Amino acid sequence: MRSKVTVVGAGNVGATTAQRIHQLGYADVVLVDVVEDLPQGKSLDMLESGPVTGTDALITGSNGYEESAGSDVVVITAGIARRPGMSRDDLLLTNMRITSAVTEEVVKHSPDCIILAVTNPLDAMVQNIFQSSGFPRNRVFGMAGVLDTARYRTFIARELNVSVDDVQAMVLGGHGDDMVPLVRYTTVGCIPLTELLSQDRIDSIVQRTRDGGGEIVALLKQGSAFYAPSAAITQMVQAILLDRKRILPGCAYLEGEYGIDGLCVGVPVKIGGGGMEQVIEISLTDEEHAALRSSAASVQELVDVMASAKAEAG
Ligand code: A3D
Questions:
Q1: Does residue 225 have its Cβ closer than 6 Å to ligand 1?
Q2: Is 12 flagged in the annotation as binding?
Q3: Is 22 a catalytic residue?
Q4: Structural domain tally of the chain?
Q5: Residue 116 CB less than 6 A away from ligand 1
Q6: In angstroms, what is the span from residue 258 Cα to ligand 1's centroid?
Q7: Does ligand 1 come within 6 angstroms of the Cβ of 241?
Q8: In this structure, what CATH number is given to the domain that contains residue 271?
Q9: Using one digit for the tens of pLDDT, what is the confidence trace for 51-85?
Q10: Is 140 annotated as belonging to a binding site?
């Protein structure tokens, strides 16, 4: 029996994610969106690629949640994407309302699922989905660090003209301008990055990583990145479905780890069949720790804005 994965939001990220997961062949996929006929059309198109790509997995589109019932994993990409000149904060309250409504349906139809949140602003949406779901923290977490790390690894591999496979790295913190690439833990074929590149070059790669989302938005003119994001989501979904126990950066609800309590922040986690099975605590220098705290403070500001809006709405 194949696993079942629902992807909510059939836009650029959701549809590309559905395509990647469907093509793996070991999970049936349900694609949900509010736009009439859109998820049905995209799913049928993907289903018809099966004979060519060699997958027997099913993929179905829907404007409701009945078809999604009993999903093992639900990926939430529903929301409004960031447009040029728009800050992540502008998206906050609209996407909060969208993700709250989506979560209610997901919990009703798939009470045992693992939710992977993707909608921006990521950390705040993970917090909102976690609180709205009532699920334990291992079953609600977010994708951002795998994407940020992929960008960082790409820039390092291109700079040194080496395989991306040999660049090991981890980006922590919130998915925003104050993310925390851990240069001290970055290695290339086991060699510390600091032995291979000057501080100036490292600083410029770190800055380009921080600006990575904006760089794509500026080039695309409309919409935001989706190829690398969907690859990152698929890696996390695979880690769950195949119980791989991968150590990856993920946005998790912290309960005192790293001195942060009651907030969703990007940290190293173990991902397997149980979802976010463990928060991995690594030692940080005072400077790295201060950067993580400052990143968490930015997330807290958004969480406070959401709490005020919810209180006002009664
Ligand atoms: P887009 O192509 O606009 O797709 C969003 C889809 O969500 C649209 O098809 C909408 O119709 C749909 N939608 C809106 N409201 C609902 C609802 N209530 N129920 C179901 N579907 C709904 O955007 P995108 O696919 O490019 O991006 C999706 C989200 O992911 C945005 O919030 C992005 O900012 C975010 N994103 C996050 C990352 C991270 O690394 C965290 C990366 C890329 C995109």
A1: yes
A2: yes
A3: no
A4: 2
A5: no
A6: 30
A7: no
A8: 3.90.110.10
A9: 999 999 999 999 999 999 999 999 999 998 766 66
A10: no
What would the pLDDT profile of 102-158 be if each residue is shown by its tens digit? 999 999 999 999 999 999 999 999 999 999 999 999 999 999 999 999 999 999 999
Q: Are 94 and 241 found together in one domain?
A: no
Asked if 76 and 100 sit in the same domain, the reply is yes
Q: Spell out the residues 6+ positions from residue 189 whose beta carbon is closer than 8 angstroms to its own.
A: 162, 166
Same domain, residue pair 178 and 199: yes
- Are 136 and 219 part of one and the same domain? no
Which tens digits make up the pLDDT trace of 245-275?
A: 999 999 999 999 999 999 999 999 999 999 9
- 78: CA distance to ligand 1 center in Å? 4
Take residue 56 and report the two structure tokens written for it: 């027997």
Is the pTM higher than 0.90? The answer reads: yes
Rounded Cα gap, residues 217 and 69, in angstroms: 35
Domain identity same for 102 and 226: no
On whether the CB atoms of residues 151 and 207 are closer than 8 A, the answer is no
C-alpha atoms less than 13 angstroms from C-alpha of 281 in its C-beta half-sphere: 8
Tokens of 128: 């909102």
Show the domain range for 243: 144-314
